[in-house]
Amino acid sequence: MIRLLLLLACLAAPALAQDDCPEAPDHRAALDSIIADIQSATGEGEARQLSNGLWELWTDAPDARAQELLDRGMALREQYAFLEARDVLDRLVAYCPDYAEGYNQRAFASFLRRDFDAALWDLNRALEIDPRHVAALSGKALTLMGLGREAEAQETLRAALELNPWLAERSLLEEPPGEPL
């Protein structure tokens, strides 16, 4: 009986392995290069164009299945179908638990629903995976503001602006007491 169970487990292993999400593409070098270019940009228009390159890398999902879930979740969010978007993005993060953009997009859907606690949890997870995810950092700052946690929000916003000083959210930065901007 034990041999039969072991045999069945060995036969099932390849089928189960096909349900595993592969690692996300390693775009660290490209991300570092784009962030450096953004930091040396001479204007907001140039920085915005460079930021589009960040989004191209962040939204490059680990495989076709993950890409379809990400694209579907983002499309639903854009249609204001936030609960449906969350359902699809739930499936993405269950399938690819180490893919930061899945959490970032699910956080965005939660944020738009004003479910700031859920958004914050997802943003923290995205930042655990990719601490230099500028959009997750700025999203976390906005989420903390939504929760009334202004000091933490300002600290997080400063971290985001260190990576991209051209973020639109820079207008929300408050001058710390005794420190001119």
TrEMBL record:
Keywords: Repeat, Signal, TPR repeat. Pfam families: TPR_19. The keyword Signal applies. Residues 1-17 form the signal peptide. TPR repeats lie at residues 100-133. PANTHER family: TETRATRICOPEPTIDE REPEAT PROTEIN 6, UDP-N-ACETYLGLUCOSAMINE--PEPTIDE N-ACETYLGLUCOSAMINYLTRANSFERASE SPINDLY-RELATED. This is Uncharacterized protein. The lineage of its organism: Bacteria, Pseudomonadati, Pseudomonadota, Alphaproteobacteria, Rhodobacterales.
